[in-house]
Structures are given as C-alpha cells and as structure tokens.
Amino acid sequence: MNPIREEKIAFFFLFLSTLLVVIPVGLIILIIIKNGLTAISWEFLTDVPRAGMRQGGIFPAIVGTIYLVLGAIIFALPLGVFSAIYLNEYSKKNILSRLIRLAIINLAGVPSVVYGLFGLSLFVIFFKFGTSIISGSLTLGIMILPLIITSTQEALQTVPKEFREVSLSLGLTKWQTIRRVVLPSALPGIITGAILGIARAAGETAPLLFTVAAFYLPHLPKSIFDQAMALPYHLYVISTQIPNIGENIRYGTALVLLTLVLGINLFAIILRIRLRHKKRW
Predict the structure, then answer these.
(1) Phi-psi region for residue 51, left (φ > 0), alpha (ψ -120 to 50) or beta?
(2) Each residue of 128-141: pLDDT tens digit?
C-alpha cells in the first residue's frame, strides 16, 4: 500500500475515534447547560434548601463539598508526595518495591464504593468518628492517594539524573538535592496530579454515602465531626428520592457540580502550562 494513503487512512480512523469520544461528552455538557441554566441564580447558589429541597438553594451542599475536598487534599497531598519521594529516590529497585508500585497502580482502579465501605469500617466504626466530615475527608484522601503518588513519581522521573549528580557533586546532601533541585523541577506535575485528585474527590458519591453525607441538612456544619451535605450526593437524592421536583433544579445542581469539576481541571491545565514555561530545561 502507498505509504501516503496508509497515513491518511490511519489519520482518518484516529480522527474518527477522537470524535466518538468528544461528541458524546460535548452533548452531555450542552444538555446540562441547556436544562440547568434557568435554575442558576444568586438565591440558588447562596440559599439553603426549603420545602423538602424543592425550593431554595444548594449552598450547604457547595460548602460541604469544599470542606470535604480541602480535608482530603490536606491529608493526601503531603502523604502522597513523601511516599513518592521515598519510592523514587530512596527505595532500592527490588521485587518488594516493584510490588508496592504495582499495588499503588491497582489501588487507583479500585471502585469508589469499596473505599466507602473501607471508610465506614475504619473511620466511622473503628475510630468512632461517626458519619462526619473527618470520616468523609479521610476516605476521599485514601481514594485519591494512589493518583497523587503515581503522578508525583512520574513528575520526579522527568527530572534529569544529571541535576541530581551535579547537586551532589557540589556538596549538597541527598535531601537538600531533593528539596532544592528535584522538587522545584517536578512541581508542575505534582500540582497537576494534586488538582486532578481534587477533581475526582469533588465528583464522587459512593464514599460520601457511607461516611458523611446527610440527606437533608439546612444549615452549615460547625465542626469536622458534624455531618454535611455534598453536591454529588445531593444530586443523587433530588434525582431519585424527591418526587415532583423541578427538572431544572436537578440539572442546575448538575451544572454547578460540573462547573466545579471542569473549573478545577481547567485551573490544573493553566497552572501546568505556566509552570512548564518557567522551566529552564
């Protein structure tokens, strides 16, 4: 076959595959925007739910989602980064370290409902935190931990070995080399992984169902040991448990959640591009 014709055929099928992915996603976004935009108002974003969640707003769910995501990233980011540093910079390349890396990769694919059951058993029952923000945050943190570890390892591996060798030859210790040379160079990938972890945590429902989510809570939580509403679970509730609720309210809630997740991903992309432009290599 003519190489030029073969290349055109390959390009056509690659382009078709891309369209098969992009078009359904675009249609979903357009449907949510079309049906949910009429529900978006200042009252909807800042008021508490009323009349059995058929009126009012979703402010407690927005705040609860922010609390949970912040708690998850405060727990998972330092632990994930330090674990990745140890695995990439200090651990020996043997069977045990390879098994640990394989386990981390496999944990990233575990269904979120399994993490929910784990959080229920460990944090809610064993540690007796109850259904609370801290239980939900720790569960979400464990769920996004493999993602943060993996992305941090990949970012550390992109730093050339020559950087480490030159730094060590100048008299810096290994930890000083990691802190002053390796980590700043790997920062774009680390931050991107962290923000993508936040986006995943913000959109999960199953872990919240077992550890923190309240069916109806028309006030804000006062401590980390209180229950809280969350956008993903609230969307599930009003879509399946509340009869005769306006369709625009359901789509409006979905639009707010979608905007939050897409906004976090967009922020990650912009931040990664800006940090990469600052690299000198």
Answers:
(1) left
(2) 999 999 999 999 99
